[in-house]
Amino acid sequence: MNEYGRETSKRARNEKVRRAREQFMMLVLLLALVPTILCIILFSKQARLKGDIEALEQKLKRYELQNNSTGGGSPNPGAGTENPTPFPSPTTTPAATPTEPAAAPTQGAAAGEEDSSDVILSSIDGRPVTVTPGADGKPIGGTQPEDNTEPFATPTPFPTPTIAVDPKTGELLPWANKKVYITFDDGPSKNTDELLDLLSEYGVKATFFVIGHEGEDYARLYKRIAEEGHAIGMHSYSHDYGKIYKSVEDFEKDFTKISNLLYDTIGYVPDLYRFPGGSSNSKCKALTIQPFISFLLERDMRYFDWNVENGDATGKSYTVEELAQNLLDGVEKKTTSVVLCHDTNAKGKTLESMKIVLPTLIEKGAQILPITADTPMIRHVKPAQEE
Predict the structure, then answer these.
(1) Rounded to whole angstroms, what are the CA distances from 196 to 106, 185, 221, 355, 359?
(2) What is the C-alpha to C-alpha distance for residues 110 and 134, in angstroms, rounded to an integer?
(3) Which residues pair with 30 in a beta bridge?
(4) Which residues contact 208 (CB under 8 A, 6 or more apart)?
(5) What 3-state class would DSSP assign to 313?
(6) Among residues 112, 220, 243, 289, which is most buried (max CB within 10 A)?
(7) Strand duo 336-342 + 308-309: pairing
(8) Are the CB atoms for 344 and 375 separated by under 8 Å?
(9) Distance between CA 80 and CA 187 in Å, rounded?
């Protein structure tokens, strides 16, 4: 083969290689595009299905509301016996509680787990009260005198969430899917009576993490919080960081003191606890909080932090309106909000801000609830075994 023939053959081979390479690249591109196109189609269908499901849920809730308002049976067997109120007002009476619950609520950190030590002593207003004996023999979570006279306040509130529907359009209100757990630390105080009056006026329940105060008037306030159906939890006795977090033994002394105080006043030891400063406080970092967390878990206690705050403990001098807006801005971003507020003699602005917060939350359709065994745990630092 002469030089010309060899050159022609080489060009032909090069052309075949080039075409083969192009075909291969086209195949790779095609293989990459097909899954992408399929994903886009699937995501589009998923979005449409999600919209259809949401529309059906709204229709179902409107049907439930209409069915209840016409005297029909509730599709939800766990709902209360009274009809839900579409638009609570300041004169709304709290909804009735279930008279025949399927099972007594379980107290303790491990919700859903059975404990053979729990004993149903009796019932309050037709509701069974579950009691877990503590290490010292005192009941955690509630009790009742053996003769069933003058029962202590129900330890676990039984809120009946309302269906927040716009009465004009029949559509769900914008915050109907939001659950708001307003909590007050450091009380009782001189503001507690007025705060409880305000909560009663709007027919809502809150959660009070209390500290140790001696005296008849404070005892009356502890009792009133519990008797009016609010959740009550412990926030230490002294709120003295240096003493409480000095050692587990010192923590236990403080815990025992607040436990005994509440048992002597409201008749039971709550199973809720909030660490002074929260579980991630600057006096007790994540690496050293664990022994205190273990102490609580060994006693079937649940500890709660928060994911929304009104700012009344930041050191900034917020106005009443700013405190309210801080809270509402935080709630707007979340489906479940555990809100940190404070109930001390110096927190009069917090009390006043609730006169803005409560009607606004109700107007937007949010459910304002006390912490119960079903409340999602909001914790800054988790137990070591869960990390």
Answers:
(1) 27, 14, 10, 12, 15
(2) 15
(3) none
(4) 183, 184, 187, 188, 192, 225, 230, 231, 232, 233, 343
(5) coil
(6) 289
(7) parallel
(8) no
(9) 31
Which segments of the chain does DSSP mark as H helices, in order? Answer: 3-69, 192-201, 216-227, 241-244, 248-266, 286-298, 320-332, 348-364
Total length of the chain: 387
Decide: 252 and 277 in contact? Cβ < 8 Å. Answer: no
Contact 95, 85 (CB under 8 A): yes
**Which residues on neighbouring strands pair with residue 127, listed in sequence order?**
124
**Paired strand residues for 104:** none
Are the CB atoms for 181 and 369 separated by under 8 Å? yes
pLDDT in tens, 55-95: 676 666 655 555 544 444 333 333 333 333 333 333 333 33
- 234, β-bridge pairs: 210, 273
Spatial CB neighbours of 386, under 8 Å, sequence gap ≥ 6: none
The tokens describing 103, both together, are: 């099972």
Token code pair at residue 381: 């630092």
Kindly report, residue by residue over 342-352, the tens digit of the pLDDT: 999 999 999 99
Q: At 120, is the secondary structure helix, strand, or coil?
A: strand
Only one residue has tokens 């009476």, namely 93
Residue 375 sits at the vertex; the CA angle it makes with 173 and 62, to the nearest 5 degrees, is 30
Gap between the Cα atoms of 44 and 323, Å rounded: 41
